[in-house]
Each structure stands twice: as C-alpha cells, then as structure tokens.
Specification:
alpha+beta, 26 strands, 5-stranded mixed beta sheet, binds manganese (II) ion, elongated, 567 residues, 24% helix, 16 helices, binds uridine-5'-diphosphate
Length: 567
C-alpha cells in the first residue's frame, strides 16, 4: 500500500463526528428573550408547553465536582491514577467516577424552546441503549439522565443491551442496581453482536411506538424527548435526531454546540458535521429553533417509529460491529420516502473520544471498509465509482462484501428513488462528478486528438464537434469511450481499444495528481498495466499512438482533457 492508500484507509476507518464545540454559556446568560410571546390560539388545543421535567434541578450536592456540567480538574496526587484509568473508556474515567451520576447540567436549548408546544398524545418510546464494556459511572449517568429528564408517561421502557461485555460489573451488579427502576430492562446477549445487530436485538423486543437509540455515554438535557416524539407524531417517516452536544473526554464538562449544523459526508463516505453558511442562514431567515434537514445522521442518537423502522428493513444485518450503519439508514430513509431531521430543541450530550475502547472481532479498518462497500453497492448506483475512486485500495484488494441480494431486493420492494435523486434533492452541495475528466484528449505537442474510428484507435486533427474524439477519464482510472477502453495491445508499445470490463480488470491509467505521486508526470498518461511504467505517446508519423518509456520532458507524451471535474 502506498502512503496515500494508507492515509485513505485510516480516514475510512475513523469516524470523526465531533462538532465544533463552544464552551457552555454561564447559567442565565441566555435568560433574556427566553420568555417569548405566548401563543394562545385555537391550534393549541390538545397541546401543551414542552414539559421541563428535571429531577436534578435542585441537586443534592451543588458543590459536587462536575455539577451543572462544569469542568473538573484531576486533584493533585491523582494524576497517575487518572492516567492509568483513561484506557478503560478512552476518556477521563477517573473524573467520570468522581462526579455525581445524577448531576445537573445547564439548559442549553436555544431561546424559545421551552415555550414550544407539543401534542398531548405523543407516542410512547422505548429507549434502546447498547453497550460493550461501558464504564460503570458513564452508563449509570446515561440511564439516570433519561429517567431524570423525560416525562415518565412517554417512556415505555429503557432497554439496556449488553453486547457480551467482558466486565463483571455489567452482569449481576448491573441487574441488581437497575432492579429498583421497573422500566429498565437488561438484555445480556450471549455472544458479541456488534452495535448494529445489538440495536436490532433491542428493537425486536421493544414495546414502545417509537424507538429512541442512544449511546451508553450520554446525558440527555431537559426537554430533550418531547420535541423528538413530536416530529415522529407529525409524520411516521420522520427520523428525528437531537443536537449532539459535547461532554469533554478530558474534564467531563458539558459543552453546547452551534445549532446551524448538518450531518453530511465526504468521499469515500466519511461522516462529518458541516456548518450551514451564514448567507444561507440569513437568506432563509433561519431561526435557531428551526428544524434542520439532515443529509446524513450521526448514527448514535435518534428516534424512529418502530413500525417504520421495520418496514425499512431495519439495518442491513450484514453490516458488522460498528460503522457505516448511519450511512445506510440515512440513504435508505431519504431515498425511500422518509426524512432525517435535527431537532434543535432536543439536546443530548455525548462523550466524544478518539478511539473505540472495545475490541473488534475482526480488524477495525477492514470492518468499516467492508460495511461502507456494502452500502455503496446497494445504494450509490453509478456513483459508487466515486466511492471506489476515493478508496482505490478497496478496488485493488477486491474486497468481498458478501451477499447483497436481500438488500437489493428490499430497495426494489420499497420502490426507493435513485442516488442521483438524493444528491439533487437532499444533498445538492456535494460535489459528485461522475468522471474525473472528459472531452477531447488533446496532445500538447501536436494539438491532435485521440479518436475512435469504427472500433479502432486513431489519432486525428482535433474537432470539438466530433463525438468520436470524446473520452472519459473515470474514477476507476479507465480512459473510456462508450463501451470501449484504452488498452495496451500486444507487445512493442502497441495500443488499442477493448471492451471495458467490470471490476479492476480493464487496464488503468494515471494522469494528473495520480501520475504525479510517482514522478513528475502530471500531464502524462501512464499505464499502470505494464511492468515498467509506460506513457501514452504520439508516434513519429504523427498519425498513430503508442506506449513508450516515460520522459517527463517529451511534449508528445503530454495530454489534457477538455474538462476536469476533480483531481
Ligand atoms: N457498542 C456495542 N457493541 C459494539 C460496539 C459498540 O454495543 O460492538 C456500543 C457502544 O458501547 C456505544 C455505542 O455502541 O454505546 C456506540 O459506539 P461508540 O460510542 O464506540 O461509537 P462512537 O460514539 O465513537 O461513534
Ligand atoms: Mn459514542
């Protein structure tokens, strides 16, 4: 693997979904303007102001470390202990154990949220929280935050799915602790399912109308639940996500984040957060409390109608352990008639960390790569070439993604739209050119162009109106005219056109940035097919093309396409 491939592999394996965090404003800093004008109209029949349930409002010990979400410092003399315990969760486990499991946090909702109205007949929900070897205090704090800050009548149950944890405290000790909360149920899986199948195990036994998935190291903020359920009540095809706030992995402080963010992805399907540009906010007169349509959900925290989730075929059960499942569900929801929304009045803190603290049954990077390739094969249509073009090492190793028949059938059955539709309607700002370059392929020295005559390769005077001179340079590195691909033929530098073949079977060519990574051959077209690097060249007759030893100075080896869409 070359250095590029390595860095790409790493980029693929990682999931950086940290938002740009801002330190929380002091309590009361936003008090002004919070009590907006009261809406008293006929539409408010059968509705109520969002409930501000918070059992932690008057904390037992206001002086306790971390109270109100304030940062905590490791005491002198405890540094070593804190350091050594970090790896138990890849965050400051020592501090997590120090702060109260039912600490208060600041109400970080934008002004106006506490005045919003929701229906009296909101659906009930089952909270599903999967974990493997979660830190005791972090897990308890997650559960307590749900119980302390949710209207009890809306919580059907809280299902904790123990994904075959190895830690002893997550067995009888946890059962015993939770037995005092009748709504909390624990499912101890008998083998490691991985996050994706563990969630499904929880979903299958859930009794609530809505499934609300949460990670096992979160803190739900006041009023978090009703706004989510309100969206699902409005339409069962809405998948509602809270704003994910940041619990610092270092000092355990609770930090709010900017509201105007969307979940997006960049090639090759790396999830990320993108700020909505200020112009867009102004042009649309967006308010901080407005629902945000979200091309991709972060994955960990969302509410979905249970029946709808099963109609969508849940997650692809062929996805392993962790990663890519947020892409899969996002594409499926949008392309099959649903919507993904971020609900700014619903806020949940999450401990972001740099690495997963648990082991992967198989290699982590490979697992995520395979998951993403499955998603690409099922959902991306012709755009899967962009995925593979940006993760070319997957093409080289001819990754086995397993059986996809069920998933492809499901997509047909649900009559889902095309990925092109998704791009045009849901994520129009993603750059997704189907080829890297196209148009005439012009030689720098002779100003002649590559052409197809009948089905043979030719070199002619350039003519922009001549369709036979149009070629594509594809993400899979082919130089292509319709079904025909440029290919070395026979020995002695001969070249020809051959029917293109799927996978990595057609001869590939390096050009621009791809060629530059080898030598100074950016304008050249270098064959990857041969033992020795060889370059596309106009032969001395100036009427034919051939392959020859690359020479960076030779203008007969320099080429450019009419249009470049990506480098
Ligand atoms: N998880 C699980 N089984 C696994 C991997 C993860 O139950 O094989 C749980 C994990 O404990 C956490 C949630 O799934 O509650 C999401 O995982 P994680 O927090 O590591 O993902 P991240 O937040 O880093 O994306
Ligand atoms: Mn997490």
């Amino acid at each position: 693997m070359d250095a590029n491939a390595v860095s790409r592999a790493v980029a693929l394996g990682g999931r950086s979904w940290r938002l740009g965090a801002m330190q929380g404003t002091a309590p009361g800093a936003r008090a002004t303007g919070r009590d907006g004008p009261k809406r008293v109209d006929s539409h408010s029949l059968g509705m109520h102001k969002v409930l501000s349930v918070d059992a932690t409002l008057a904390p037992r010990d206001p002086q306790a470390p971390g109270q109100f979400g304030h940062p905590v410092a490791v005491p002198d003399g405890k540094q070593e202990e804190a350091k050594s315990r970090w790896k138990e969760g890849n965050f400051n486990v020592y501090l997590s154990d120090l702060i109260p499991i039912d600490r208060a946090i600041m109400d970080t909702r934008p002004a106006g949220c506490s005045e919003q109205r929701v229906h009296d007949d909101l659906p009930t929900t089952t909270i599903i929280m999967c974990f493997v070897d979660e830190v005791w205090s972090a897990l308890l704090r997650s559960v307590h935050s749900v119980l302390s800050r949710s209207p009890p009548h809306l919580i059907e149950e809280v299902i904790l799915v123990d994904d075959f944890s190895t830690k002893e405290y997550l067995k009888e000790k946890l059962d015993k602790y939770m037995s005092r909360f009748p709504k909390v149920k624990i499912l101890h899986l008998k083998e490691r399912h991985g996050l994706i199948r563990a969630r499904l195990a929880g979903a299958e036994v859930a009794k609530g109308t809505v499934l609300t998935f949460l990670d096992s190291h979160v803190e739900c903020n006041v009023g978090w639940l009703e706004p989510l359920l309100e969206r699902v009540r409005l339409s069962r095809a809405k998948v509602a996500c809270p704003v994910i706030e940041v619990i610092s992995d270092k000092d355990m402080s609770y930090m709010t984040v900017d509201s105007f963010q969307r979940g997006v992805f960049t090639w090759p399907m790396n999830f990320g957060w993108r700020q909505i540009p200020q112009e867009v906010v102004e042009k649309n007169q967006m308010k901080e409390t407005d629902i945000i349509r979200c091309p991709v959900m972060a994955g960990g925290l969302f509410a979905i109608d249970k029946k709808y989730f099963f109609e969508l075929g849940t997650y692809d059960p062929g996805l392993d352990v962790w990663g890519g499942e947020n892409m899969e569900l996002s594409f499926k929801v949008w392309m099959c008639g649903g919507e993904i929304e971020i609900v700014p009045c619903s806020r949940v803190g999450h401990i972001f960390r740099n690495d997963n603290p648990y082991s992967f049954p198989k290699d982590r990077v490979r697992t995520v790569e395979r998951n993403l390739a499955r998603v690409a094969e099922v959902w991306l249509d012709e755009y899967k070439e962009l995925f593979y073009g940006h993760a070319y090492h997957l093409v080289l190793k001819q990754l086995d993604v397993g059986d996809l028949t069920q998933q492809i059938q499901l997509r047909k059955k649900l009559q889902c739209r095309s990925f092109r539709w998704y791009l045009e309607n849901v994520y129009p700002d993603l750059e997704a050119p189907l080829v890297k370059a196209s148009g005439l392929l012009v030689n720098a020295a002779s100003a002649g162009c590559m052409a197809v005559e009948n089905t043979t390769l030719a070199f002619e005077e350039c003519d922009v109106n001549n369709k036979h001179q149009e070629f594509n340079y594809t993400w899979l590195r082919l130089i292509q005219h319709g079904e025909l691909c440029l290919a070395p033929s026979g020995g002695a530098g001969a070249l020809g056109l051959r029917r293109c073949r799927a996978g990595s079977h057609s001869p590939t060519w390096l050009h621009r940035s791809l060629a530059a990574s080898r030598t100074e051959l950016t304008d050249h077209i270098v064959s990857e097919h041969l033992q020795q690097p060889a370059c596309l060249e106009v032969d001395p007759s100036h009427k034919a093309l051939r392959l020859n030893a690359c020479d960076s100075a030779n203008p007969y080896q320099k080429w450019h396409f009419g249009n470049y869409y990506a480098d």
